[in-house]
Amino acid sequence: MEGIIKFLQQLINGIHVGSIYALIALGYTMVYGIVQLINFAHGDIIMMGAFIAFISITVLKLPIILVILISVIFCMISGILIEKIAYKPLRNSPRISALITAIGVSLFLENLFMLIFTPNPKPFPNVLKVYQINIGNLQISNLTIITIVVSVILMIGLDFFVKHTKTGKAMRAVSEDQGAAQLMGINVNTTISVTFAIGSALGAIGGILYSIAYPVIDPFMGIMPGLKAFIAAVLGGIGIIPGAMLGGFIMGIAESFTKGYISSQLADAVVFGILILVLSIKPSGIFGKNIKEKV
Amino acid sequence: MLKVNDINVYYGAIHAIKGISFEVNEGEIVTLIGANGAGKTTILHTISGLMKAKTGEISFLNQKIDSIEAHKLLEMGIAHVPEGRRVFAQMTVQENLEMGAFTRKDKKEIEESFESIFAKFPRLKERRKQLAGTLSGGEQQMLAIGRALMSKPKLLLMDEPSMGLAPILVQEIFNIIKEINASGTTVLLVEQNANMALSIAHRAYVLETGKIVLSGNAKDLLGNENVKKAYLG
Questions:
Q1: Mind giving me the DSSP string for B55-91?
Q2: Where are the domains of chain A?
Q3: Which residue from A72, B22, B52, B152 lies 20 to 30 Å from A140 (Cα-Cα)?
Q4: Nearest-CB residue to B88 (from A176, A185, A295)
Q5: DSSP letter (8 states) at residue B121
Q6: pLDDT mean across residues, chain B
Q7: What is the distance between the alpha carbons of residues A208 and B145, in angstroms, rounded to a whole number?
Q8: How far apart are alpha carbons A115 and B99 in whole angstroms?
Q9: Is A2-281 CATH 1.10.3470?
Q10: Is the ipTM beyond the 0.85 threshold?
Q11: Contacts of A293 in chain B (CB under 8 A)
């Protein structure tokens, strides 16, 4: 009985952190889908989201809804600007140039925030009174429930947006064939901006949820969750939205089980090991497919 | 309706289009024929804004269009059926057609366009929920044409619509082009299949390595000894 409880407890913890990874992974995968670029600055969007939330709470003393809103809007604008300034001029260059630029943007943002906020870690304020809900012997915190519910709602919303709205369909069209999309009268630049905005918004929310769960923030905090979310996106099949969601949950659950049953220190190694394993069996990721074009 | 005046187009250092001029009048089917690499596709890409001409001028309905962005030309009435069809393989037939109507707002009119395209291509109606990538080559070509028609174009640019299709389908596609033209859409057709193209076109231009070497009535060109030798086998 105790074994089952422990198992379920770890599973729930895994889904909690996994849903955050999934939110962040969506940003990587959507951007990759539309411009074939691994946006390494996405991890720093998470960090910026957390810092903007931090200021809004401690300095401006705003209510939580406004805090989230400001952080989301700030990250959306940042995402759009990063694309316009750093990536757009390189759209027709070799992909490696854009990739290196993305790493450059990432370093720039980290150092900029280090300059403004110093590299010292800061405690993220308690915006949520965390308490445990007991279901039998199982303990679930309200934070876990909120995180999972918020993430799932956002994912369902995104799925609906991409499948059924005009802009969402345009995003899919641009990600398949930019030239043909232009011939349909779709403004490719606008569509790419929208994609960066949505990815960054999800990243901001992911960053806030992450900071509430692990309440210490610093300018380099985006690196690890960003890297894991990136792996989640690759695991699920980069460019494929449901893949990023599934990949995120797998990462979170694998991490949590390793921490619970093997050792905390091995958690990252196991997570990266899964990536190597999956990619050596199915290099295009879990949902990745190679559709042959008919000529 | 469409006037192309002395355009020069380059791929890097390669001079692909060397001072080409031609025009398309309202109601016509005009065809550009020529061998692979003559520059046919490049001309269409330049008209629809996917490429830019270094010099020269293109005007449509007396308006200069050579500096207008590709995505805005559709609203002016120029639709383009690209070479190799380029349907959105991961989207359904229905969604592909919706993309064709991307610039249109009136839902009722769009619905009417759906009806008229499904009437023209009943096969597309049967497969409207299917992913475009799963269609046969001929069906994909029909979808590419239907998608372009969803914008209700005044001028339809068609790039090699017969490419890779069985002869019976080629005949069907060319009948459809004739129908589209008969219902009031002007057509600029680029083809390697010179025989078929000349048989439905009103006028034709013959291209050779980036230059127009011959032009005239399609019927006359069909009987022209040089054309016969070079293109009609």
A1: EEEEEETTEE-TTS-HHHHHHHTEEEE-TT----TTS
A2: 2-281
A3: A72
A4: A176
A5: -
A6: 93
A7: 48
A8: 47
A9: yes
A10: yes
A11: 89, 133
